[in-house]
Design brief:
Radius of gyration: 34 Å
Largest sheet: 6 strands, mixed
Structural class: alpha+beta
Amino acid sequence: MMPAGNLARMVVANATRSPKHFILSAFGIVVGIGAFVFFLAGTLGVKNVLLGKVFPLDQVEVIAPHTSIAGKNLSQKLNAETVTKIKTRREVKDALPRMTLQFPATGFGKFEGQDIRFEVGGFTDGIPDVHVADDPKLKDVFKDWDAMGEIGPACTPQKGGIPCPDKAWQYCDRQDNMCHKRIPVLVSPTVLELYNSQIADSHGLPHIGMMEQFIAERGRERMHFAMGLGDTMLAGSNLQVAADKHREVGAILVGVSNKARQVGLTIPIGYVERWNREFAGDQVASEYSSIIVTLRDKDQLAPFSQWLQDDMKLKLNDSLGEQFATAMFVITSVLIGIAFVIVIISAINIAHNFFMQVTERRREIGVLRAIGATRADVMAIILGESAIIGVVSGLAGSLFAVGVGTLVDVASAHFLPKFPFKPDTYFDFTWWIFALALGFSILFCVLGGLLPAYRASRLEPAQALAAN
């Protein structure tokens, strides 16, 4: 048996003595492994954006399917008891009840000197303020102030009248001529991204980075706006509110949270309950519109969904995230399949090249066998050369993929317009992708060299030395 050190030196010398054979053997593997790393890192990077920020799969919306018989609504009701039952499931990390504003309402005010007006009714959710208590920036400002009795001194809303002492946080309510705390409003990162990418540039408005810094630079007064309860900008609204019930309340944007409604506004649920009762009736005020469930693991979605349907008679709202996840799985499988086809063809090419080399090196192999090299030594030499090609090809293919990915990111930054959730990079080159690439490269190269190595090891010394 040949000493390990001598064997290693011979393998390296043999692998590098013919650059032509080395390059021919390695080229296909480099391309295949490069494609594997590029496709896998690319789909993983896009998945992180789509399924991590835009459509998080670990968050699902539970709703009650609409059921009616003879015009009577028999739909399952969502209430505090429903939330408690859902929270007992082992798949569930948290359950967040939501109540939507079920009557017409508008928002209006000024932002950076420009008049703004938008629909609030149907686009505003209420959530319990305890659900943001874990956020130190929001826990002291996102509260149901009216329920806490935070009502200030008397005031007069008319121009030149008695103002509220704290202009940043208070407004004068025309209903009772008292100073009330402004309703705290949250928006989601999605709303912030849509504003930065679609609205800011087209309307000459500033981009918002860190919300806290933006508020600090401009002052709380810049974050004020009013809500017109009972008003609407939509023609033909299903619920008409008598003109004498219309009123205005003051609101203030206090921050950004992942727990906010994805598109719309989020306020403490107490306000929504009282307003729904006032404008839409007691029944509307007693039912949640949906429950946002955060799962411990997105892979537990299937059993949780089945339990909802069988035991609770509820369902998940249609999830674009699931559809995107399925589509991305199919696309990723196809692309990685193409990469493996390239690698397999390259492995066959390696086998062909080594068969040629074995034929050319018959006398050399015969000499090795004649001076004491075993069949295992000959196999180890050929397979060692294959493994070296695998290592070099795996590293080169990975570097090639990173280089192409960098070019794609640079081209995107310079030539593609800004769009919602446009990432700084489309790729997630994690360590395990490179480890897989290197492992597959070595594996397929060794497999490609296996038959030539076996054939070389079966050559008898006399037969090999007698060859011309």
